[in-house]
């Protein structure tokens, strides 16, 4: 069991020694100079030593006071530092993931609850853009990019290649190949032109059917909007089977006929100039684990 003098006495001594004045110590501790003098006298009685030489306008430490002062000073400084650190909010770890608008809305966002349950200590910030962001500028820690690359200066990992097929709403009833001439064809603009984009023209070629531009098409600037129009029964669309997998499984959409044609590849991309922090590694591992897994049931309702 420690045998120590009172804390008020120790505080009074440390403040008086630091200021060289009982009056200034009293101002700091919000007491009277008489109270400071009383506490120091108690400390001197406890130690059996004289700690200050009292002069008219100041006090000077004795040899015993000089020896005691740095011990108390350092101790109080350590108390203050620890207490301030304990009072600071713990900085939360955050991972920023960037991907395309459609992939964000149709694939990533419905799954993030699973990550939050697995890693409640990590915040996710989701950044949606059809334009590639600069990972070197700290806009994002990780990107899921869709295309064929290359991605210079990046660490690149293939996730999966999707495929496209005609998809429609059950509201339209049973549909066959012959209905392609009567139903509106829903389409969307690709961000980058590429001869291998899974377009209706390329699908007709794969199906061995003649292609000609027609009236009555619905063309959207955004893939997600094309999916919404298809869900609303506004026509038949050529869509990524990966992005509408949950809708097909739930019966909200059907794939009435084939063939399917290959799309592009989703790549997991991060800057080659940065070693990922452990919380970023956790997000990368979780993204890999989600490949071809359905979204949570609550997200499908």
From TrEMBL:
Pfam families named in the record: HTH_1, LysR_substrate
Statement: the UniProt record of this protein carries the keyword DNA-binding: yes
InterPro entries: LysR-type_TF_proteobact-type, LysR_HTH_N, LysR_subst-bd, WH-like_DNA-bd_sf, WH_DNA-bd_sf
Swiss-Prot/TrEMBL keywords: DNA-binding, Transcription, Transcription regulation
Tagged with keyword Transcription regulation: yes
Domain (HTH lysR-type) ranges: 5-62
Family: Belongs to the LysR transcriptional regulatory family.
Stored PANTHER family: GLYCINE CLEAVAGE SYSTEM TRANSCRIPTIONAL ACTIVATOR, HTH-TYPE TRANSCRIPTIONAL REGULATOR
Protein name: LysR family transcriptional regulator
Protein source organism: Undibacterium umbellatum
